[in-house]
Design a protein that fits this description.
single chain; about 300 residues; alpha/beta; Alpha-Beta Plaits; 2 domains; six-stranded mixed sheet; 14 strands; about 30% strand; elongated
């Protein structure tokens, strides 16, 4: 029976320098990525996302710990692992003087199946609206990233490792990319997606890991991480906001971040609605709008360490 886990990291750590000058890029990372899921790896620049990916690809060596992909050690079996994965780097480097189709044919020949891979590459390029006849130097940054995605996906790998793949892509192409990722997962394949585009992670990922200063702070399903205790509330009064209402609400323990804009009071609330309804009964309320927090707001709550906001 095949293992449910495609990627396993145990105690994976990476430091640079020594003594007082030591910089910890990744600290004791324990993480599993399951077969057939899109896993979102979240964190801003410098959090350790790219370091993790470079360790998985054996481009750098860990200071401690280790990792496996497909049950194989990422160091001892790196050649076989690379044959079965597709990789999109954050810093994309291509041959500037070559046309996209020339690069595609070359990479396909290295993989040993020129005809089948090139045919799939053409299909991917069409979906991404990429002209592969142009030389790389004549492509926009967005089109270079499209070419990188085609190269990563054209051999239909079992695992895609994508480091910030959609930066510079226009919204329509991003939608095409999301559809391609959904189809990829539907075929039982796996995606490890490093990103700080939270709307994208919310749209396509099954689970997310939140990385902060080289440490993994949380691993949750997108559904669960969105199921938080607080909501944003907009209260619209018929006339002006009653005098003292903003200050009154600001003193309530279940309400924070109260702001007024014309006839509207906006606030963040935790818990039951009854105390709020009683507090605003002094004014004539035209409407009450409840808004769930975005993944970005939840992400920032994790980053601030403010557990009360989660």
């Amino acid at each position: 029976m095949a293992s449910a886990s495609i990627i396993e990291m145990r105690g994976l750590s990476k430091s640079y320098g020594s003594g007082a000058k030591q910089t910890v890029a990744l600290s004791n990372l324990n993480l599993s990525v399951n077969r057939g899921e899109i896993f979102g790896y979240l964190g801003p620049n410098g959090a350790g996302k790219t370091t993790t990916i470079r360790l998985l690809l054996d481009l750098i060596r860990p200071s401690q710990g280790g990792a496996t992909i497909f049950g194989m050690d990422v160091r001892a079996d790196s050649v076989e692992i690379h044959r079965r994965i597709g990789f999109f780097p954050a810093e994309l480097s291509l041959w500037e003087g070559r046309a996209g189709k020339q690069i595609i044919h070359y990479v396909a020949s290295v993989r040993g199946d020129t005809r089948g891979i090139v045919k799939h590459a053409d299909e991917l390029a069409e979906r991404l609206d990429l002209d592969t006849s142009k030389k790389v130097r004549d492509l926009s940054s967005g089109n270079k990233r499209k070419l990188g995605l085609v190269i990563a996906m054209m051999h239909s790998p079992e695992l895609l490792i994508l480091d910030e793949p959609t930066g510079g892509l226009d919204p329509l192409v991003q939608q095409s990319f999301h559809s391609m990722m959904d189809e990829y997962r539907d075929r039982g394949k796996t995606v490890f997606l490093s990103s700080h585009v939270l709307s994208e992670v919310q749209a396509i990922c099954d689970r997310v890991g939140i990385l902060r200063d080289g440490e993994l702070k949380a691993v949750e399903s997108v559904e669960k991480i969105m199921n938080v205790e607080f909501s944003w509330i907009d209260v619209t009064f018929r006339d002006a906001v009653p005098a003292g209402m903003q200050q009154k609400l600001g003193r309530m323990p279940s309400i924070t971040d109260v702001s007024a804009n014309g006839k509207v009071l906006r606030m963040r609330m935790v818990g039951d609605f009854d105390p709020l309804l009683r507090a605003i009964s002094d004014g004539y309320v035209e409407s009450l709008h409840i808004e769930e927090p975005t993944l970005e707001e939840i992400f920032l709550a994790y980053y601030s360490g403010d557990k009360e906001k989660r």
